[in-house]
Amino acid sequence: MWTYEKKLQYPIKIKTPNPKLAKIIISQYGGPDGELAASLRYLSQRFTMPYPELKAILTDIGTEELAHLEMIGAIVYQLTQNLTPEEIKKAGFDTYFVDHTTGIYPQAASGTPFTAAYIQSKGDVLTDLHEDLAAEQKARTTYDNILRFCDDPDVIDPIRFLREREVVHYQRFGEAKREDCSKISKVQKPTTTALLGDAINQTFCRT
Predict the structure, then answer these.
(1) Where in the sequence is the domain holding 166, given as residue range(s)?
(2) Integer Cα distance of 173 and 191 in angstroms
(3) Which of 72, 79, 160, 204 has the smallest CB count inside 10 Å?
């Protein structure tokens, strides 16, 4: 069960609409490396984590990603308020507007709708943690790319906050990997297939 606190994790108060920028930033709402994919990935993977500490990390980060999804939605919403038809057309926002008006819809900057194919939940602790490490770096790179197109401090500030959280999540997943590696040699599995899996996991623990 979650308790919803009725405020954004980080304040967002954008004074100047910019639909062209909104079309880019929405990629972190429903794009391949966005916050929706992150939250679903981690909150799905947590069920098969073998230790309570790992379940807790994935639950914590997956929950925070939902807060980040809310932040991105708020940014896109505020960037697209009170637009004139001329502003919509000039910014190239008309293709989005025709389908969604100014509603928040999960898609990438390319216009590709969100798909669960963006994520994986494999049920193997090290496989999933390596995916999570990569996911955080891809999200960090996407925020870096977004910042290259931002010149509004009202937008730059929360985007930088979100980028910093990706770095923190990457560090926490690194801690989770080390936690698993410290315990994995103590787990005895009787089958040949499982023993082969242990050998593979030991190799990944050294990387």
Answers:
(1) 19-205
(2) 29
(3) 160
Instruction: Write the pLDDT tens digit of every residue in 86-115.
Output: 999 999 999 999 999 999 999 999 999 999
Average pLDDT along the chain, 207 residues, taken 10 residues at a time? 92 98 98 98 97 95 98 98 96 96 98 98 96 98 98 98 98 92 60 49 60
> Smallest Cα–Cα separation from 123: which of 14, 50, 39?
50
**Considering its fold, how many domains does the chain have in total?**
1
CATH of the domain at 96: 1.20.1260.10
Q: For residue 78, which phi and psi values (nearest 5 degrees)?
A: -70, -30
CA dist., res. 184 & res. 10, Å (int) = 38
| Amino acid letter, residue 114 | F
Phi-psi region of 111 (alpha: psi -120 to 50; beta: other; left: phi over 0): left
Residue 111 token pair? 């216009």
In a domain, 10, yes or no: no
Count the neighbouring beta carbons within 10 Å of the beta carbon of residue 179.
Answer: 16
Please check whether residue 175 lies inside any domain of the structure. Answer: yes
Output phi, psi for 6, to 5 deg. -80, 60
Cα 138 to the center of its chain, rounded Å: 9
Domain membership of residue 1 (yes or no) is: no
User: According to the model, what pLDDT value does residue 183 have?
Assistant: 73
